[in-house]
Amino acid sequence: MLDYWLRGWNKRCLKQQLSILRCRIIESMVDRSEKSDPIVLSIIFLILFLCVGIVATLFLQQQSVVEVVAQPQVENALLITSSVQTKPEEVAEVAVQTQPEIVEVNPEGLETYITIVDSCGPHFEGECLRVRSGPGLDYPVVTTLRTGIVLKVAGSEMGDGREWYKVTFDEWLRYPERVSGQWYVAADFVEPVYDAGIVTTILEVATGTPKKTITVDRSEQKLYAYQGEELFMEESISTGIELTPTPRGVFTVFRKTPSRYMQGPLPYLAISKYYDLPGVPWNLYFTEQGAVIHGTYWHDSFGQPYSSGCVNVEPQMAQKLYAWAEIGTTVIVQD
């Protein structure tokens, strides 16, 4: 405020000094004009003009200095406002808003499963997907999974910047001691599948709908699926070996489940080997003793006997057959 008053005072003094100087020069000129000749008078007027120009120049320079000094004060105010607008709290809020959110679209009443789609092959060729005991790479590896496995999950969690599915085994296990701790699978290598889960209820079929039939030919190692007389599928399979053959006869699909943890040996079989197969996919049960048509991810020897009595189908074709077949579908096993 003091600077502003001094600057105003300087301006007024300059104006007053200019007026006084101008009056004195004019009076002197008038006095001398009466005594001097025209040449002297012209010189006096020239000096007067130069004096006025010098005073005006000094006045304008002072004005420009005042303006230049005032400008940085305005700029500093703008910088302060800008820094307030970009305070850390607001930056953090923007960062939260741009984080990806996990949104799982799970139709009401359906269970969530995952299919392993990017892992090693049936004979562990290639790089196998590692299962960890927690949602992150720092957790220990529990086991490995091959392509084609289907597992039920109980939600997902974030860890190491990625989504991890938590596997659940809510089914009866013959050898539960083989499963220890938690299983987490990175979402990058799987595809979610939504299914009704275990199904045992016969659905009502409209009158006149052609009957569905699955025929398993042990001699040909072929599976045929018909709706009436129309062929839906023909696929190479693997039935039971000679010591554990697939039972012959006419049966009915009475149970469906997208995933089953199959373990052996089986105590009710005279000859049964050790096996431990989590996530056996797309199961169609047709005998109470455990004969099942299912997907097979642990071998690719379709077209010849291989199993312990089940009907082995390539996983993708097994999924297609599973979606098509219903509870009550007839299964014929023949030579």
Provide structural commentary:
With 335 residues, the chain is α+β, with helices and mostly antiparallel strands. The chain folds into 3 domains: 2-95, no CATH class; 111-195, SH3 Domains (SH3 type barrels); 212-334, L,D-transpeptidase catalytic domain-like, CATH 2.40.440.10. Helix content is 30%, strand content 29%. It has 4 helices and 16 strands. The chain has helices at 2-35, 38-85, 88-97, 315-324, and strands at residues 111-116, 129-132, 141-145, 150-159, 162-167, 183-186, 190-195, 212-217, 222-227, 230-236, 249-252, 255-264, 275-285, 292-295, 311-313, 330-334. The strands form 4 sheets. Strands 6-5-4-1-7 form a 5-stranded antiparallel beta sheet, with no helix packed on it. A hairpin with a 2-residue loop joins strand 4 (150-159) and strand 5. The termini are far apart. Mean pLDDT is 79; it is low at 1-11 and 62-103.
